[in-house]
Amino acid sequence: MFSRAALLFLGILGGACAALWAVEDKPFLFSPLAEPPEWRLLDPYQGTITRREFEQRVRRIFDPWGGLGKYLTTDDEGVRLFRDVAKTEPLFQLRWAGAEGSQEQGPAPLFFPDPEKPLQGQVICLDPGHIGGDWADIEERTFRIGQDRPVVEGELNLKTCRILAERLASAGAKVVWTHDGFSPTTALRPNDLYPEAIEYLLQDSNGRRAPRYSLNGLIRWNAELLFYRSAEIQARARRVNEELHPDFTICLHYNAAPWGGSGRPGLTTKSRVVLFSHGAYTASELVYDDQKFHLFRKLLENCTPEELDLGAAIGQQFQKKWGIAPENYEGSGYASASGASPYVWHRNLIANRLFRGPVIFVEGPYMNDRTTYGWIQAGEYEGTRNIGGRDRQNIFREYADRVADGVIERFRTHAARSTTFTNYSP
Ligand SMILES: [Zn+2]
Which residues surround ligand 1, an ion (CB under 5 A)? Predict the structure, then answer.
């Protein structure tokens, strides 16, 4: 661990004085690199939600641990949100819908999907997780065992999404992408982010992972983290929100159990899957203005019902076809049970916070589970092979099919929610 003084000293040596001296000794108000919230974007939601509905969504979805209440003042007229717990700095005021439910959206119009093309009319955005390629090492999403082919999560995600895209398109969807290749979406690079990395370390060192790096190494590690997590996801979010305007987004990943030091990655014999719907803000996240803003925006967008429908339908495919168990985050402090399906949990991730509209975040099998690892090593073969005692198609095909079948099933069995999410982008 490094003291603030040591970091400050290093920051000065590093020539980042301007950024440092601009920092005052008060709580950090924004997540790293976050854009300042534009509260006026929430004004179209004035008078659209009742107090009861608001409080239910807060409790069930967005604030299961009760961290938000100390920033709110609620009465019969509406709710006021404050920056601080002393409630001296107001951020936003929301007026309730007049009478109980009077201005809330009515039921979605009846819509009978074409059985041949159940996804007709849907614009679906695919977000293959991570960047991969030359960036896989710094993303810490790659490992290699002996002389085997390296496992690079960004590449597995993209391969799976390409098959998924074909399935969705042949069911009638228009498929759009946050990125399709191994180049970053953001124009920033880690070298551009050293001042922010130092500032971030100074302001928010508590509870932050501090690998045993040299001081310089620690700053570089933070600059890389800001690059591939904050800057990259923010750039993808701008694409989703300003250009693509999808009906919903699928973020697709492969998961992993911790694989230890890069020198000696080990295999496990446990694999789980999970689907994340947005929500479950922690008290430490709610300190930040931008987190409060996104909580309000997501709550008012009301995308949760769609996320839960999609998540539950995909989870059912995982269960039926793979028999794979869901993750259990009970007591984790950062994810809460959705109640819709044991496979679906609420979690506040950068992508599902910043992307507008419904986002379903899919975490597939563990890349370092013994059976999954062998399945990945077998590559994109034709037909079936015996994998872990069962005849299976290649893992990319099977994972894509589970997700596609879930999405299609959701639109076959009930109407599209075309009216619940209105894109109020300026
Ligand atoms: Zn991932």
Answer: 129, 253
Alpha helix (H) residue ranges in 261-394: 289-301, 304-317, 350-354, 370-377
d(CA 125, CA 177): 5
CATH number for the domain spanning 378: value is 3.40.630.40
Token couple for 40: 């006026």
Gap from CA of 276 to ligand 1 centroid (Å): 13
Tokens for 373? 């690892």
Contact 5, 210 (CB under 8 A): no
Distance 143 CA to ligand 1 centre (A): 13
CB 356 within 8 A of CB 241: yes
* 389 inside domain: yes
Residue 169 belongs to some domain of the structure: yes
Distance 109 CA to ligand 1 centre (A): 37
Task: Please check whether residue 89 lies inside any domain of the structure.
Answer: no
Q: What is the pLDDT of residues 153-169, one digit of tens each?
A: 999 999 999 999 999 99
Q: Residue 102 falls within a domain, yes or no?
A: no
Distance from residue 130's CA to the centre of ligand 1 (Å)? 6
Domain that holds residue 398: 123-184+238-413
- Report how far ligand 1's centroid is from the alpha carbon of 375 (Å): 18
pLDDT digits (tens, 9 = 90+) for 66-113: 999 999 999 999 999 999 999 999 999 999 997 544 454 555 555 667
Number of domains present in the structure of the chain:
1
Find the 293 Cα to ligand 1 centroid distance in Å.
25
The owner of tokens 């995909």 is 314
Question: Which residue is listed with tokens 């899919």?
Answer: 362
